[in-house]
Amino acid sequence: MAHWKLISFDLKANFAFFKKPDYNDGLQLSYNMLHKPGLLGILGAIVGLEGYKQKGELPMYYQQFKHLLVSIEPLGHEKGNFQKTSVKYTNGVGYANADGNLLVEETMLVAPAYRCYVLLDTGNELEAKLHDYIIQRKAEFIPYLGKNEFQAWLADIHEWDYSPLNSDRPFAVDSLFVKSGSIKNQIVETEISFDFSVQSGSFTYFERLPIGFDEKLMQYQLNDFAYTDWRLKSSSKIANLYTLKEKKNELLKNIQLF
Question: Order of strands across the sheet with 152-164?
Fold first, then answer.
């Protein structure tokens, strides 16, 4: 029997590097937002699930948690963007480059932070363990944001009451949401209309982000995501929107679970 609980935690680090599979003139690029496969890796680290072991095989954390519904809300950003810098370094290990040292340049996010929401069935032993570990701020492996030198920490953990959004008035969406693509392999239709009757916002941010893996091609499955501080008209259509109420106070939020 399912026992659903929606939990959130803030994930912060000094730096992050979410590697894109493409390059720009020798510069390795990073996604700006934490994406779902990256979050699943962090959840797997918390409960001690193994990562990549061999080519052509998806990691254990993804196999165990790919069904989870999550949501991601950026914190401390500038209109959806985090400050970025680039670093050049030399990789001198023998297996990196048989012809000599490998010169690498990467972009990094500076002081990124995200509020991560996870819907868990505590009737499932592994998901119950994940719930308890998050509540207790425990982890089997140290979580990190993209590279193991970018260690992350968890803070501000909350449990939420939640219900599908049902509003006949303009509303805000506090998380990233799918602009076009799929959720759990189902194509979703998104239609948004901004409420310009009041000056409610200042930006709309777009990024094409991984939401999972194409398990035949063994590469990222990508969706177009949006994030905005504008209020949306009640006629807007966004799949899987939920209204959240923090159990200890009257704080309300609207997020998309994907």
Answer: 69-75, 113-121, 4-13, 152-164, 241-246, 252-256
